[in-house]
Write the structure tokens for this entry.
Amino acid sequence: ELARRTGWPILADPASGLRRGPHTDRAPVLATGEHLLRSRWADDHRPEVVVQLGAMPTSKSYRLWLEGSTTGRVVAVDHLGRYPDPSHVVTHRVDAEPGALAEVAAGRCGNQGPTWWTEAWTEAERRASTAVARVVANSPFDEPAVVAGLDAALGSDTRLVVANSMPIRDLDAFLPTDCRPMRIMANRGACGIDGLVSTATGVAYDSGTPTVLFTGDLALLHDLSGLAAVRRLGVDLTVVVVDNDGGGIFSFLPIVDAAHVDHRRLFHTPHGLDPGLVDEFVGASLYRPDDPVSLADAL
């Protein structure tokens, strides 16, 4: 509501829940920030104020953009005392629950509506979204295609639990805005890998609705014992595993180019295991999709 009234664009992290729902038809909610903020266009459209609500967004582009920004004010709003600021650019800190603050602010500000600034960002979002969708549609079957498959197949009553590392970043880069509701949950932070399957199981058990866990192979293997609860509780849990035999995110570290470091053994940590074998452990149905059609059929 605050964005609709002011015309201020929202660069929405996927875990915020703001990318999905009927409000996206009325408010300037953007999903391509990870791409836009890497462009010269964003350098030419720097705001006077950035308001960061809650936790630090997933987007690396956002952090780098802030570091190089000439924005005069960066306001961090947080009720947990964190005020995440890895680049030391925050100028103002507000101790308030982000949703409550936005509700109060929306009630006090006028109904300005869209401005030329709003139109510039929403047009950039439209063009970037079209380009991203085209690239994903014409690329090999990989992580972006899995995100597209989840987006197309999951119903509005489904809970989507997303792993740390690459899955949440894939969602950030490739999940578009849509008026269809989708509840997205994620364990973020240094220990976000811990208990991931158990978290998804708890979500499925508590909500009583279909739940999908989108994860990599390492995070799944790290919490295999959580699968025991799936069978014991009889919950409806679908696990979508992107198996690249190790930690794919570490290939993006600068150290990957260091000739004296055995990057594959120390960082990628290939395990050589077949995650599909856990189907016998929990009595699950196993599918091994290798293209968008077979993924859609499995989901």
Remarks:
- The two ends are 34 Å apart (CA to CA).
- The chain has two domains: 2-131, 140-298.
- The CA atoms of residues 106 and 272 lie 53 Å apart.
